Every structure is written in C-alpha cells, then in structure tokens.
Amino acid sequence: MKKVGPTRGLGVRYGSTVRKRYMKVMIELKKPHKCPQCGFNRVKRESVGIWKCKKCEFTFAGGAYTPVTKLGVVAKRAAKGAPVEETAKAVAAVESTTEEESNE
Ligand SMILES: [Zn+2]
C-alpha cells in the first residue's frame, strides 16, 4: 500500500536546509516590495521576472523571486554613470542582505 499523508510532501524529501531556503524565497516572493517609481510597498510579481506596482501601475523587470537583483543594481548604477566605488558599495549592501542565509 502506498503511504499518503503529511510525510509525503516536499518537506521531508528535501531536508530542512532546502525547506528553509524555500520558505525564505516564498516569503520574499509574497511580501510586498517597494516600487522604484512611487515608493509605495505595492509591488507584486506579475510573472517570473516581471514586477508590477499596484499603486501606480509601474511595470518593470527584476529577479525571479525579488524585484532587485545584484546584477540589476550594478546595471542601474552603471547606466547612471555612478562611480565604481559607489557601485561596489551598492553591491556589497545587496550581498549582505541576500546572502545572510549562507551563514546559517
Ligand atoms: Zn508605484
């Protein structure tokens, strides 16, 4: 007989580390994000990599799970002609927030 029940889920199969990461990604995915245009926390994911602000209808491309990616920050800074040191600082700031999970 096949066992069907709570033990047959995603959780057990992938272990606690992956489950924790998955949870983190899902939380990140579901929480409202700040709109780069109007500043309101009303940005929701439209589809993978596409984000839309429910307040001002601003639509933009971003990361698959969060609207801002390291690469996006660098690209934006570079496009604005920001100094290299400042770009590096911005990347470091993003890294410190997105890679804290590796310390667990
Ligand atoms: Zn907006």
3D architecture notes:
With 104 residues, the protein is of the alpha+beta class. It contains three helices and three strands, in the order αβββαα. The protein has helices at residues 10-30, 70-80, 84-98, and strands at 43-47, 50-53, 59-61. The chain has a three-stranded antiparallel beta sheet with strand order 1-2-3, with no helix packed on it. A hairpin with a 5-residue loop joins strand 2 (50-53) and strand 3. The longest helix has 21 residues, at 10-30. The radius of gyration is 18 Å and the shape is flat. The termini are far apart. The structure holds zinc ion.
Summed up, what is this model?
By secondary structure, the protein is of the alpha+beta class. Helix content is about 45%, strand content about 10%.
